[in-house]
Amino acid sequence: MHWNEEIYRQTLSFSAKAHANQKIPGMEIPYLKHISAVVMETLSALQHTPETVWDIDFALQCALLHDVIEDTPINYDEIEVSFGKKVAQGVMALTKNETLPRAEQMQDSLTRILQQPPEVRVVKICDRIDNLYIPPVYWTTAKRQYYQTEARLILDTLKGVCPYAEARLQKKIDAYSHYF
Fold it and tell me: What CATH number is associated with residue 14?
């Protein structure tokens, strides 16, 4: 499995600048820790699914940029100018449409993800794997239960692309019950 180190460095630098002052919610840890974990999960998932021909550079770029539009002032056009239309569309699919009611945002994003190359599905699964580690201490039990239910929706909607990542997400969903 090979990727272009220069593309990775360029995309990492862009993501690091975009998320520079951001912290993981409820912690004093730089947000780049989450981005790095999603990249690691994505690489591991693709490595454990060698029978599929993956666009590794595209997958890594989407993993590195997956929260840039949603969580920073960076917009779609800036992603497209810097990384091309394919990457911008992948990142946009991973971005919740905040003009929709909250209850519709995830399903809308999942519908758009399904229209993208399979690497985008893997990134979303890996994103939720990392997000299911430890919930913020201020989340209510109801919020934690909702988050677990939403993770099930992600898995049910996106399954069939990467058995390794799907199995990891299922384990995280099952284990998340101990947080409530």
Answer: 1.10.3210.10
The angle formed by the CA atoms of residues 92, 159 and 136, to the nearest 5 degrees, is 65
| Token pair of 151 as six digits | 């993770």
What's the Cα-to-Cα distance from 96 to each of 49, 61, 92, 109, 159, rounded to whole Å?
28, 18, 8, 6, 19
Q: Of 171, 24, 174, 46, which is closest to residue 120 (Cα–Cα)? A: 46
Packing angle of the helix pair 163-176, 118-131 (nearest 10 deg): 30
- Return d(Cα 163, Cα 143) in angstroms, integer: 28
User: Rounded to two decimals, what is the model's pTM?
Assistant: 0.96
In terms of residue numbers, what domain contains 172? 5-179
Q: Are 83 and 11 a contacting pair, CB within 8 Å?
A: yes
State pLDDT tens for residues 35-88.
999 999 999 999 999 878 999 999 999 999 999 999 999 999 999 999 999 999
